[in-house]
Amino acid sequence: MRDLRFWRWRKAADDDLDRELEVHLELATEERLEAGITQRDAQLAAHREFGSVALTKEELRDMRTGAALERVWQEARYAVRRLLRSPAFTLATVLTLALAIGANASIFAVVYRVVLNPLPYHQSERLVALEFSLPIRNVAKVYYVPSRLYFQYVDRAHTLDGLALYLPTNELTLTGQGSPERIRVSRTTSSLASVLRVTPAIGRWFSEHEAAPGASPAAVLSHGFWLRRFGQNPNVIGRPITLDGVPTIVVGVMPAPFAFPDPRVDVWIPAPYVTRTTATDGYNFAAIARLRDGATIAETRSELTRLAVDLDPSYPNNGYKALVSTATNLLDATVGSISVTLWILLAAVGLVLLVACANVANLFLVRSDVRQREITMRRALGAGTRAIALYFLTESTLLSLTGGATGLALAWGAVHILVAFGPTAGPWWASLPRLEEVRLDGVVWAFTLAISLLTALAFGFIPLFRFTSFAESLHGTRTWSTPSRSRYRTRHLLMAAQIAFALVLLVASGLMLRSFQKLRAVDPGFDATSTLTFRIGLPRIDYPDPGRMAAAHRAIIDRLSTLPSVTGVSASTCLPLSEQQLCQGGPLFIEGHPLPAGTIAPFVAIRAVAGGYFETMRMRVLRGRGIDGSDVEREEPVVVLNQALVNMAFPGQDAIRQRVRLGNPSLARGTPEWLTVVGVVANTPIFGLAEAAPFPQLYMPIFASRPVNNGPRLDAMSYVVRTALGPETLTESVRRVIHEVDANLALAQVSTMREVLDRAAAQMAFTMVLLAIAAGVSLMLGVIGIYGAMSYIVSQRTAEIGVRVALGAEPGSVARMIVWQGGIVALGGIIAGLASAFAGTRLIQSLLYGVSPRDPAVFAGTTALLLAVVLLACWFPARRAARLSPLDALRAE
Fold first, then answer.
1. How far apart are CA 876 and CA 790, in angstroms?
2. Is the pLDDT of residue 482 over 70?
3. Pairing of strands 127-129, 675-681
4. Residue 170's beta-bridge partner residues?
5. Which runs of consecutive H residues, i.e. helices, occur in 694-810?
6. What is the reported pTM?
7. Cβ atoms < 10 Å from Cβ of 505
8. SS3 for 118?
């Protein structure tokens, strides 16, 4: 009552002061008119005379502002007291909002930092990744650029303001700094720092002359590597470190945020063979460029395509003529298709927020119904719509801000869990890029505050639309009468909305679960059980020729074979699903099938393997035989093809005893040797388990002395050790064996083949888990909301139920009536949810594997699950109603 008196006094005071000011101005104006002054001059003079009154009005405005703030503060204190007197309502509302807002804040943090936030480079929007397509070979993406084409672009591309080449990360062995360690190294041209506009934190970037053949090797360290291995010692600049046995001078340390092209890079060194005299046609380097001011990506694509064709028109079977530039913004190239996944996840948690809003709206409806008489009495005592709105908005704002703050704390924990356990390890196609940048910053705080205030406004205005008349409120004690259906229409609509939103999320998570099951059921072409894999690199200074490299690999295989429980050992230059992807490849030429003029030889992936590789990997030999130890020892010119290569090169023919060679005889040094096909093996994936079509692969023995054109390099090999026991137990034994062969060798990429398969499916598993969590939270909130709404409806109909039972209604029929009414609402929500899911699941079609976005089994299963849970939520209040005693029900009135 004190609040109402204060509000009425303030309103009267404001009106009196305004009227007083108007009277003074009118009297002063009339006096000047009687003195013969024009009306305009009279009004101006009156305003000047009463400037002090105008100042008083400004002071009045300040008083009004202070009074308004005092009013809000007073209303907030009263709202806190009211909410503390209703702990169940307050706790339920805050926790519901905290779950929904926390989920939205955490996923928005990922979307913003990964997809929306610019890359940490100056004017990063002008950076482009040079990519190409080869329509003549039906190749959608070529991520590499020959160094010969690089110099063509440097000299003649007018739309570019800088161009740099880099090799995707490989590994070198660091020695002389404690235990040997395989570290990740990126080889780049000296122009990379200027293209990215990044300056080392300490020292400098290497110069162009340091990249020339014969120059002293130079290296730039990453901030993390400098911290981990050198303890942030600034005196490391100018000192040598030993990489693969080669002393390399440290010339700089990059700042902490710099992580190009991979956050796991430890060292940058000059790229080899990138000079005008040593430029080649091999597709070995990725490229990044900066656009000139005013240039567009479309203009750049057109120019790069034209310059590729113009490079050497006389070049036989010029592959550049087939290149079509698809240069892409660097952010888009970095993020890739994961952006679609993240937007879908953000939409999913948005649905969770809608479910939570519907749940809390139901709670507010119940609260407003209970307090109708109080609100009507306030209105009768003079409170207007503003005062009533402030009354409810203060409560909703306090609840939403508390829920938002709690949700922000939950989001902080969720983001840390995502960063710690998200798919960051492994190749780019199975990981989440920029995950190390994800954190809660000011933008996420502002987003959380915005959705908290929006929910506060939505809940605060709900009661304003449910006022009853003064007379009806005063007669509100007649609650024994059956409420009209219009009283529950809003509540039923909210219940149906919760069911619809929950069903959409359940269908989406069901489809992702089915896709994940299909993906894990894919036959990779090998047996991943009980196998340990690792990679070993041989320093060129200690192993300068293929003969010594092959001898070292044979020695390691022989030593590993003697370990207890080891049943098989072999090695390959590239394993399935490895981080090296293609590892090495080249054009394939078939004996007796000359290429027509103007056509290009098919490109195949090439692997050199040790004896027993197919047996150790348990890859199925479909025809002929595999490669055994005698083929390696005698260096037999034989090869084994996978089924995809046979289908491409020998359609409808028997590939056994056919002969192929690698490299064009008109371009190769010497005459490429013919290799005889001795076997055909099953396909194994290269880029991922869900790749659209298997890539053609060719396997050859490890050749120590036979010069084979385009033969894989042997300085780094991946080993496979099959054991009768757990493969994890072999790591230390393997490390000891390697140390016995050469103390300067180090293991890298140590894992089991099962972990390799898990990483290949990590991105889909990440999406599936988050969608399943969103669906689970939505289902939980929906069920709680439905249960609460039905319980309130039953409590409102206590007298009616008592009368029905007193008149002879069976308790079972009463329970069925309430469940039936809840089921009708659920059915409406399910129909709306099915329609929305049927239309919306096409948006996640790109994320699915082997499952239709309208899979009937998923739709039927999730619908049945949701309907059963909803009916169960309706049954508990119905059972309680059926047990009511008529006498107790009527006495309660």
1. 9
2. no
3. unpaired
4. 185
5. 731-741, 753-760, 762-796, 798-806
6. 0.80
7. 28
8. coil
pLDDT at 702 over 50: yes
**Using an 8 Å Cβ cutoff, are 499 and 871 in contact?**
no
Check whether 459 has a pLDDT greater than 90: no
Task: Say which DSSP state 544 is in.
Answer: -
- pLDDT computed for residue 108 by the predictor: 94
Number of H helices, E strands in the chain: 26, 24
Conformation bin of residue 637: beta by default, left when phi > 0, alpha when psi is -120 to 50:
beta
For residue 691, the tally of other CB atoms under 10 A from its CB is 15
Going by the DSSP 8-state scheme, the letter that residue 112 receives in this structure is I
Is the distance from CB of 774 to CB of 93 less than 8 angstroms? no
AA letter at 572: S
Q: Distance between CA atoms of 578 and 718, rounded to whole angstroms?
A: 9
Quick check: helix, strand or coil at residue 226? helix
Distance, in Å, from the CA atom of 781 to the CA atom of 98, rounded to the nearest integer, reads: 12
Contact assessment for residue 167 and residue 271, using Cβ atoms and an 8 Å cutoff: yes
3-state SS assignment for residue 189? coil
- Structure tokens belonging to residue 504: 């959409």
What gap in Å lies between CA 394 and CA 392, rounded to an integer? 5
Identify the helix (H) or strand (E) that includes residue 132. strand 132-134
* Rounded (10°) angle between helices 385-421 and 442-461: 140
| 318 token code pair | 């010029």
Cite the DSSP H helix spans in 314-467: 330-335, 338-370, 372-380, 385-421, 442-461
User: Rg of the chain over CA atoms, in angstroms?
Assistant: 37
Q: In angstroms, rounded to a whole number, what is the distance separating the alpha carbons of residues 549 and 542?
A: 9
Query: 10 Å Cβ neighbour count for 453?
Result: 15
For 558-592, the pLDDT digits (tens) are 999 999 889 999 999 999 988 665 577 888 889 88
Res. 463 pLDDT band, cuts 50 70 90: low
Of the candidate ranges 429-433, 482-486, 655-659, the one whose mean pLDDT is the lowest: 482-486
DSSP state letter for 685 = -
- 462 burial type by CB count under 10 A (0-12 exposed, 13-18 middle, 19+ buried): buried
Distance (Å, rounded) from C-alpha 655 to C-alpha 652? 9
pLDDT at residue 507 above 50?
A: yes
Q: Which of 745, 763, 882 is nearest to 172 (CA)?
A: 745
Lowest mean pLDDT among 333-347, 727-741, 789-803: 789-803
Of 579, 192, 259, nearest to 435 by C-alpha is 259
Look over the chain and give the mean of its residue pLDDT values, rounded to a whole number.
Answer: 81
**pLDDT (tens digit, 9 = 90+) per residue, 216-251?**
899 999 999 999 999 899 999 999 999 988 899 999
Closest residue by Cα to residue 424 from 438, 413, 412, 414:
438
Residue 164 in tokens: 């740099």
Range scoring the smallest mean pLDDT among 480-494, 583-597, 763-777: 480-494
The first and second tokens of residue 581, run together, are 């992807």
Q: How far apart are CA 745 and CA 741, in angstroms?
A: 8
Q: How far apart are CA 572 and CA 140, in angstroms?
A: 28
Q: Which residues contact 578 (CB under 8 A, 6 or more apart)?
A: 427, 718, 749, 756
Nearest to 462 by CA among 364, 570, 601: 364
Could you tell me the CA-to-CA distances from 559 to 258, 635, 748 in Å, in that order?
Answer: 41, 21, 18
